[in-house]
């Protein structure tokens, strides 16, 4: 990976970094923070599902574990928020490795792997709703104490920049995957696991590495969600909403691409908010937009929005090269 490879991702981050300082409202800042958290979770899903071809329906298992770990450590044990965030990411990685080891050792893939991840997320939701140290059905409320040590900022713009920085980290990791040996092995396993193994690639090791990276980013998104909204319960942490949104953002934006999850999250939630602004408080109108957009992408843009943009750019370059200079008389 070279500095040139990072130009486009960092340019997108730079453009987004300007938006919070343009005098936008708090509602817009809330939207940006939420959208970036979803984009971060989608980047995690994209590593396993997009680059690795292991589609998951249960990334809420990693998101919720990160959120609960950081919340429990702060509320129950008084741990510093930064340390809680690191522990939340580590807990998410541990869950990812556990789920991955059980699944990949059994040779699960495709719909079977997707259903297993969904089952784990549901089991975690039921357990978190029943045990006492998670707050049970009442959930956990993190105390409001603005400051750097608590990762709470009175100025929402600071929070937006913090989350954007982590999204930028996700873009760097995704770019590294497109240029690294590990990324090449991951794509080889996705395309043909038996052929990759015949060439000396260890599929088990590669897939475990992918699910660890994927779980780390998704758990990080959960930690940031808990730290921003200061509340977490089983339905929020382990509910299907984050699994669906992470999957949709990656698919709509372009699975297996660097910018796809971020572009997909922006498109989904941007159109959803615009529709709610036009249609008013119609229940579920944003979900209708999600469904319609997904259908359109699957039907006309199988490579997602990034795939469509790449094909458009290729056609424009072809047309540009096809033009012949006028012959002077």
Keywords:
329 residues; two-stranded antiparallel ribbon; 74% helix; mainly alpha; 14 helices
Protein architecture, described:
- The chain has 329 residues and is mainly α.
- It contains 14 helices and two strands, in the order αααααβααααβααααα.
- It has helices spanning 7-18, 26-51, 60-77, 81-105, 110-130, 156-179, 181-191, 193-198, 203-229, 234-238, 240-253, 260-279, 285-300, 304-322, and strands spanning 140-141, 231-232.
- The protein has a two-stranded antiparallel sheet with strand order 1-2.
- The longest helix has 27 residues, at 203-229.
- The N and C termini lie far apart (50 Å).
Strand content: under 5%
Topology pattern, helix = H, strand = E: HHHHHEHHHHEHHHHH
- Radius of gyration equals 21 Å
As residue ranges, the low-confidence spans are none
- How confident is the prediction overall: mean pLDDT? 89
For the biggest sheet, the summary is: 2 strands, antiparallel
């Amino acid at each position: 990976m070279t500095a040139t490879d990072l130009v486009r991702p960092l340019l997108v981050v730079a453009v987004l970094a300007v938006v919070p300082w343009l005098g936008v409202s708090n509602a817009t800042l809330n939207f940006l923070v939420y959208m970036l958290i979803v984009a971060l979770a989608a980047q995690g899903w994209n590593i396993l599902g997009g680059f690795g071809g292991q589609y998951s329906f249960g990334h809420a298992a990693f998101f919720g574990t990160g959120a609960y770990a950081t919340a429990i450590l702060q509320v129950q044990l008084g741990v510093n928020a930064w340390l809680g965030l690191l522990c939340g990411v580590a807990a998410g990685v541990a869950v990812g490795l556990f789920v991955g080891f059980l699944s990949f050792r059994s040779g699960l893939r495709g719909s079977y792997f997707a259903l297993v991840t969904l089952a784990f997320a549901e089991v975690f939701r039921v357990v978190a709703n029943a045990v006492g140290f998670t707050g049970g059905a009442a959930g956990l409320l993190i105390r409001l104490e603005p400051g750097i040590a608590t990762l709470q900022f009175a100025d929402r713009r600071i929070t937006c920049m913090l989350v954007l920085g982590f999204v930028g980290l996700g873009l760097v990791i995704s770019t590294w995957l497109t240029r690294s040996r590990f990324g090449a092995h991951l794509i080889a396993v996705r395309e043909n696991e038996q052929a990759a193994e015949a060439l000396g690639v260890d599929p088990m090791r590669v897939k475990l590495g992918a699910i660890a990276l994927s779980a780390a980013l998704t758990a990080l998104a959960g930690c940031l969600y808990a730290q921003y909204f200061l509340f977490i319960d089983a339905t929020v942490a382990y509910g299907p909403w984050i699994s669906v949104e992470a999957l949709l953002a990656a698919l709509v934006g372009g699975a297996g691409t660097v910018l796809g999850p971020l572009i997909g999250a922006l498109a989904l939630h941007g159109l959803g908010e615009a529709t709610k602004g036009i249609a008013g408080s119609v229940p579920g109108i944003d979900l209708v937009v999600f469904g319609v957009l997904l259908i359109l992408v699957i039907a006309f843009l199988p490579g997602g929005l990034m795939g469509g943009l790449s094909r458009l750019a290729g056609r424009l370059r072809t047309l540009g090269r096809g033009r012949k200079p006028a012959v002077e008389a």
